[in-house]
Amino acid sequence: MTNDWTGFALAMMVFTVSHFLPRLADLRGRLIASLGRKIYFSVYGLLSLVLFGWVIVAAAQAPYVELWPPLDWARWAPMLAMPVVFVLAVWGLGVDTPYTLGGKRTADPTQGDPGRAALSRHPLLLALALWSLSHLLANGDLAHAIVFGGSLFLASAAILLFDAKATTALCQAAATYFAHTALFSLKPIGDPNWRRHHLRGLCLRTGIGLLLWVSALHLHEQVIGVSPLPY
CA-to-CA distance for 27 and 47, rounded, in angstroms? Predict the structure, then answer.
């Protein structure tokens, strides 16, 4: 067994720097002005996914330092969670609130109909938190605990920070915003008016999310090097 943590440390360092570098000297603002907001965030999002993939692969290749023993039941956690993770992630793209990751920047959070934000105002962050927690349970070694534990912390902290930002920005309208949205709730599906306007799109996004999950399930072993099947 190798004791070389260099690859994992390098991947973590590059991934971390990629998130702080754009904030230096207003680099992000200048790139947005030059490229346009949509192009900048598309390229930055793709780069972040590639770098995070590198971190995951590097964690799998890092020295194995056991924090807790592998548990048979814990291997089922990602298998059961990942369909929900992919569906939530697809729900979250362009959700009708500017106060979350992946939200529609031009959305008016004080309008009467919050759309998918009525189900969750943080679907992408919930997806990240659920992905992190399920994989943390299934991987009891130090490198994976750093990656998945860190991701779980950041996702949870981001939810709190976005809600605090909404409270500050909306002032008196914040109470209405939080009353019309939820951290997660399926209650709006029971509302005929909500179903009439949003159910078709929700079903389409759910189907896309499940297709992406099936694809990821088949590619997991080839890309990550570990079978996701719990048996």
Answer: 16
What residue type is 7 in one-letter code? G
Collapsed DSSP state (helix, strand, coil) of residue 141: strand
How many C-alpha atoms does 218 have within 13 Å on its Cβ side?
A: 5
30 and 125 share a domain?
Answer: no
Residue with tokens 């780069």: 47
Check the CA dihedral 182-107-150-53 and report its sign: positive
Statement to judge: residues 57 and 72 lie in one domain: no
pLDDT by residue, tens only, the chain of 231 residues = 456 899 999 999 999 999 888 888 788 888 888 888 888 888 988 999 999 989 998 998 999 999 999 888 898 999 999 999 999 999 999 999 999 999 998 888 887 789 999 999 999 999 999 999 999 999 999 999 999 999 999 999 999 999 999 999 999 999 999 999 999 999 999 999 999 999 999 999 999 999 999 999 988 888 777 788 877
pTM of the predicted model over 0.85: yes
State the CB neighbour count (10 A cutoff) for residue 44: 17
| Six-digit token string for 159 | 């939810």
Q: Are residues 48 and 130 in the same domain?
A: no
Domain, as residue range, for 44: 1-63
* Residue keyed to tokens 């299934």: 138
